[in-house]
Amino acid sequence: xxxxxxxxxxxxxxxxxxxxxxxxxxxxxxxxxxxxxxxxxxxxxxxxxxxxxxxxxxxxxxxxxxxxxxxxxxxxxxxxxxxxxxxxxxxxxxxxxxxxxxxxxxxxxxxxxxxxxxxxxxxxxxxxxxxxxxxxxxxxxxxxxxxxxxxxxxxxxxxxxxxxxxxxxxxxxxxxxxxxxxxxxxxxxxxxxxxxxxxxxxxxxxxxxxxxxxxxxxxxxxxxxxxxxxxxxxxxxxxxxxxxxxxxxxxxxxxxxxxxxxxxxxxxxxxxxxxxxxxxxxxxxxxxxxxxxxxxxxxxxxxxxxxxxxxxxxxxxxxxxxxxxxxxxxxxxxxxxxxxxxxxxxxxxxxxxxxxxxxxxxxxxxxxxxxxxxxxxxxxxxxxxxxxxxxxxxxxxxxxxxxxxxxxxxxxxxxxxxxxxxxxxxxxxxxxxxxxxxxxxxxxxxxxxxxxxxxxxxxxxxxxxxxxxxxxxxxxxxxxxxxxxxxxxxxxxxxxxxxxxxxxxxxxxxxxxxxxxxxxxxxxxxxxxxxxxxxxxxxxxxxxxxxxxxxxxxxxxxxxxxxxxxxxxxxxxxxxxxxxxxxxxxxxxx
Length: 590
What we know:
By secondary structure, the chain is α+β, with helices and mostly antiparallel strands. It has helices at 4-9, 27-39, 46-61, 77-86, 92-106, 110-118, 120-130, 135-148, 152-160, 163-173, 203-216, 221-225, 229-251, 271-282, 294-302, 308-315, 339-345, 355-360, 375-381, 428-439, 454-467, 528-534, 569-572; strands at residues 182-186, 196-200, 256-257, 264-270, 322-324, 396-402, 407-410, 443-446, 472-479, 494-502, 504-509, 538-543, 548-551, 557-560, 575-582.
């Protein structure tokens, strides 16, 4: 069921010279009556007169009202000047009707919306009325705020008077039981990627959610950072809890058709709008990831030797592969940069059960240029894609290398080749298939880990700063025993392979197959004769837990899981590693 305020906002705004019925309501008479009643508020008839005048005004502004009802060409300025006083009335019905008139006027025309927005008394009155204890008043005021926010002027004025903070506070006062019954609804035929969000039984909660998300997604960086920290953090937690329920409904494809559930109050907010709000709230200065200091990154990757990093830069950087041997117990140490990530996954030595919960909690990570400085501009460009399920090929690959030609085989064959059918979103059935694929020998490769986990982001940012490069991308590879994931290939970026669990055998060519490639140059996998020629001279490295391997860009390489001698395959062939890819910008060309 769609709330009445939402139906009202569907009416298209018209210009102020919009024609009404042939008769017209006498605005001067209405003003005179209400002014007299306000001035004589102690008289018993005053409230009744004001209520009747407000009802007449509201009907005259509402589209599709009674045909015999006179229509206003515009809301008279004298009447407009009374709204701030009426919004402060002790009578709930008067406040409610005044808010309804402000809302109706806001969507009557762009000119009237601007008139309402520029009246500080009306804007403040509506914002304060949202927090009223009377639900009728809160509903009317919240609807009016949404009506006012249909224009950029209205949104800016609401933000100017701290509407977001008041809406957040009111939302947090709603009983938790009302936030549990979440529904998502698809209005577009054949599309449920970004369905609308609704809450069963509680229309006020839907309106509050609608209004606060609309305004959060209007905020600039400065306004986001000046929000009260505690309030922003508390609301963000609530929004994330609601998002978890929404995301779960999306994964299950448990999407209602419009009108299917008469108890579901739907907002105009879609899942991507909620995802954007969560992202924007994280921009608050207190939520930003702090990169690991240079010394911590150096120690975590290159060890404690004073000349180890300098020796690496002089003798190996973009010249030769290097296994950087660290203590095999390093991942259990509290000061190791990767230990918190391993602990977060809660992995056991031979456990692959983390695949399902990890994939279930992920959303698609959209590609972003390493030199993108305006994050809000990026959000605008990808707004319609935010919060969608992970996409095969972009966020995840499930593959293995087979045969004497060592060709890559994808578990989801239909999604491995670009086609015109659109992206392959992984819903719950495909997520379950990924765990089954792993058991059948397929490697699970996840992209964009630096955007998904704070501890990985801290490592990536610290490493990028250490090398003076714009960014570091992080992928995760989970490979079952006796298996090879990617075929032999080379990259356009330098790679640090960090072995977290298990062992893996790497084979790397002694020389680059071509001159060092620049970023984003077309790359191809090396197969058959090319593979044999490029790998004729090669080095092999066996990585154990805590080992780190450096591979320069342009060097062909491949890797497979192996069991160390004397150990049973089923307990030692499992491998989990991260690749930290350092994008090396080419020199400037003049």
